[in-house]
Structure formats: structure tokens, C-alpha cells
Amino acid sequence: MRIGRFRLPTRWRSIRLPYKLVLVYTPLILLPALAGIYYLTESYTSSSKAQAAEYATDLLGLMGQKVDDRMRSYEQLSKQIMTDGELLKLAKTEPESAYDRFKVESAINEKLNVLWLGADQNSYIRSIKIETPSAIYTYGKNAIDEYDVRNSEYRTEVGEMKGGARWFAPQTFDDGYTKLRAFRLGRTIRDEKLNELGTLTLVIRVEAVGDIFRQMKFQEDTALKLLDEKGEPLVDNEVSIGDVKASRLLSFTDDRLGNGWTLAVQMQLDRLYEPIFSTVRQALFILFGCILLGLVVTHLLALDLVIPIRRLTMNMKMGIKGVRPGKLKRFGGAVEIVEMNDTFISIMYEIEQLIDEVARQEKKKKDAEIRVLQHQLSPHFLYNTLNSIRWMAMIQRQDNIKEMVDALNALLTYALRGSGGPVPLASEIAILHNYVAIQKVRYQHFEFAVNVPAELEQVEVLKFLLQPLIENALIHGLAPSEHPGEITVSAVSEGEHLLVTVADNGIGMNEETVERLVRGLSASPTDRLGVRSVHERIQLHYGTNYGLSIRSEPGVGTSITVRVPMRMDGSAEEKGERSHA
Fold first, then answer.
1. Calpha distance 558→540 (Å, rounded)
2. How far apart are CA 435 and CA 479, in angstroms?
């Protein structure tokens, strides 16, 4: 018991003040209001459903009686026709000619006209068909397909009734001018000796039932349907309920129709719920007003303490994420919290100054390392160049010495010009041509090709970025090879990155050698100084996300891809802006 007494105050003190106020307001305001709304809704819903059910049941029973009476009247009419002695005598007549058939049909029409008159529901009869083995007689308007009375399935279903009435679901018929949907009522015609003479068919328009639906005063959003034995709809009042949940519908059925069909009605509860919805909306409005008042009081109580603490916490999170102190917010509130915020901002200013100083020192260190790497490359390059001049002097004596010296002069000028920063890719490619001209004196049997799109020529790259890779391809790829060689330099853009590939068709390397060379890019091997230096220069200048990737296959060749960020030359951008202006 003593432990429980101490836990509750501790937990309560750990809850923030706004939540404490909400916990107080909830049982006092929300719970009674919500309980009242719930019981009011349930009471009104139950009474409304009961009233609607009683109303719908009464109307459905009345409508079912009318529909059943109308259908029975058609059955009675068909029974009078099939038991009339004169009609049976005419039906047994076998006309010998078209004229005899016309006389028989006229006599049948006169007799049927007498039976047809006298009842309002008979106006829905579209046609009466008497079908015998020798002829088909039509009273009323015929259809193109004779209302399908010759169909074997139709005859079979009528015959199974043994003279009883057989109702068929509505179908669409066409008389060549108009289309209509109609029921068919079929009976088997027998003479006084019960010999089968043929079939009697009454074609009844679906309006015979549809008009009854329209006469009944249901609500506008009430769906009425006449269903067959399988529950499939035959006739409706053309009202669609739509996709409504079963909980929001009232459904009733009446299966007392004589032919086995069923009447069904569906009503939406939205109208029944509308008054209670109005009351609930008013109650919710008052409830939200009370909640709003409580929130205002909570805000006023917390304005001097809770909100300043939250803002201080936000400033601390932003400072931890690296937001500069100048963007941190100052605010009002309790004096102690304001002083804590000012102290934190002052500390962040001091940290920012320390970080800037460290970044400057790091940049100086990287620049020094880059210069050291560049100086490491220069003696190696000059040695190979002078060695090529020696070979030219020994083999060709005085021929082409001027071109050799010119190319060397261009290379030295390019190396010593500027501050050693990035240059356009076009300049780097141009100096490669001079370098290749010098190397062709020593390695005569190779070709040099460049495939660089014009839009990439002004992308900035490090000076002498590609020359060590060309030299590597000559010494390690083409020199040991026995067939003519080729070196290709190509460039493509990949999003915000530039990919420059130096590929040769030399002897290539096996997988183990490639792996050792890749590991050597980040280590300190004794060979392949040029490749490792290029990789280190790229990472020192752009970061560890950039550098070299190597692919090789023995007997096929080697390709080294340089990956650097896509940064356009500043002078080229200024020219583009002036041209647009």
C-alpha cells in the first residue's frame, strides 16, 4: 500500500501541465455530453425504425395485394380464353390457305376483343398469341420474333404446368419500330377430350406492375422491386439506393404473391436520422465551445511556462542538428527560461566559431596535401618526357624535334599556369593531345580517340586529372601488347555527376590484380603511383564519395572511370547568362 501511495504522485508530476488540464476537463465535460448524445440517438433511432417499419409493412402488404390481384386477373382472362368453346373450335381448325387462315384469325380477334374489353388492367396487354401446330394467331401488336413462343424451352416450361399458368420474367421485344419489356403468361390449350391443341400466350407490358409501384406513396428514396424465385429483380421503380451500408437501410419483403414471386422494399434511414443529426450537431457545437474555453484557459495558464520551455527545447534540437545560431529564436516568458535560452544561443555562437576555425585549418591541410601530390607527379612526368626526347634524338636525329619541344612547352606552360585549381574539361582534353604527341615518339603503334559531348566541355575538372591515366594505359596496358593499341577518352553525365572514362585495348588484368589495385587506391603501394595520386587528389578535393573505379579483363583491356561532381566553369556560365540576356 505504501508503494502505491508514492507511485501515483510521481506519475502525476511527470505529466505535462496541458495534459493535466485536459484530464480534468474530460470527465467533467466530455463524458456526460457524449453519454447524453448517445442515449438520445439510440432512443430516437429505435422509435424511428419502429414507425418506419410499421408504415413500410402496411404499404408493402397493400401493394402486394394489388400486384397479386392484377396478376390473378390476367390468369383468369387466360383461363376464360382457353375454356371458351368457340375459341377452341377455331383453334382446332386447320386452314387450307392463307385466306382461310385470315378468316380464322379475324374470328378469333372478334371473340378475344369481347373478352379483352371491360377491365382497366387489360390495357397493359400488348398481344395475345394462340399457337397451334398448323398456325399462329395474333391479337394485338406482334413482334419480329413472334414473342419467342416457338422456342422449344418456352413450350416445354409451359407444358410442364399441365394447363396451369406459367409466368416468365420480363424480356425485351421488338416490333420493328419500338422496343418494349413485357411479361409472358403461358398456358397449354386442350380440347374437351384433353387433347393438346397448342399454347396460349399473353404478352403483358411491365408497366402493369410499374404503375402500381408509382401509385403507392413511398418516400422518394425508397426502392421497390419485384423479385423472382431466385431473388433476381424483374421490375423496379427505377430508384437506386447506391452503395449504402446495410446498417443504414430498412428492408422488407412480401412473398405472398400467387406465382411465387416476391415484393421487396428498401428505405434509407438518412431522413429518419436527420432530426437527431440536427440535435447532435447543436450538442456538439456546445461541447466544442466548452472544449475551446478549456483550451483557452489552459493556454493562458501555460503561456508563461510551458510554451517557453517547448521553444527552448526546439532551439536546442535545432542547434544539435546544425542550425546556425542566428536562426535560433528568442522569445518571452519566465525570466529563468529566457536567460537559459540566451545562454544556449551564446554557447552555439562560440561552437560555430570553433567549427569555422577547424574547417579553415582542415582546408589549409588539404591544399598542402594536394600541392605535395602535384609535386610528386611533376618529376615523374618530366623524366618520361625527357626520355622520349632522348629516344627521338637517337632514332630520328633532327626530325620532329621542333614538334616535340613545342608539345613539351605546352605541357609545362599548362602545368605552371594558374593556381592549380579546376579547369574546363576541354582544356584538359587539349593538353592530352600534346601529351599523346610526345608519347607517340616512344609508343608509335597506338591511336588516341576522344568522345566528349559539347555540353560537357565546360565542366570543371582538376588539372592533370587524366594524364596519369593515359600514361598508365600506355606503360601497363599497350606497351606489353603485341597488337596495335587504342586509347579512348569518353565523358557522360549521370545526374549531378560527371563520369570520364579512359579505356585501352591492352593486355588487361585478372580479377586478383584488379582487386589489389583497388585496395592500393586507399593504401600506400609502391607501384601505380599515378593512379593512386589521381584518386587521392579527387577525394581530397571533392570528398570520399568521389574517385576512381576500375574494370579490366585479360586480353581485352582496362577502363578507369573518374567520378567527380558536375560543376560548370564560371566563365562559361557568365557567357551563357550574357547570351540569354
1. 25
2. 16
As a whole number of angstroms, the distance between CA 154 and CA 169 comes to: 12
Q: Would you say 546 and 539 are in contact if contact means Cβ atoms under 8 Å apart?
A: yes
* Calpha distance 456→424 (Å, rounded): 9
d(CA 164, CA 186): 8
Provide long-range contacts, Cβ within 8 A and 24+ apart, for 191-195.
191/88, 191/92, 192/88
Helix (H, G, I), strand (E, B) or coil at 149: coil
Residue of 78, 87, 67 lying closest to 185 (CA atoms): 78
**Host H or E run for residue 542:** helix 529-542
- What stretches of 84-234 show up as alpha helix (H) in DSSP? 85-92, 98-116, 152-159, 207-215
Half-sphere exposure for 463 (CA within 13 Å, toward CB): 20
pLDDT digits (tens, 9 = 90+) for 286-336: 777 777 776 676 666 666 667 777 787 887 888 787 777 777 777 777 677
The C-alpha cell 566541355 sits at 457
User: Following DSSP, what letter does each residue of 377-390 receive, concatenated?
Assistant: HHHHHHHHHHHHHH
* CA 283 to chain centroid: 40
Cβ within 8 Å of residue 491, ≥6 positions away: 425, 451, 452, 453, 456, 459, 498, 499, 500, 501
pTM for the model stands at: 0.43
- 500, three cell numbers: 570520364
Q: With contact defined as beta carbons under 8 Å apart, do 140 and 125 qualify?
A: yes
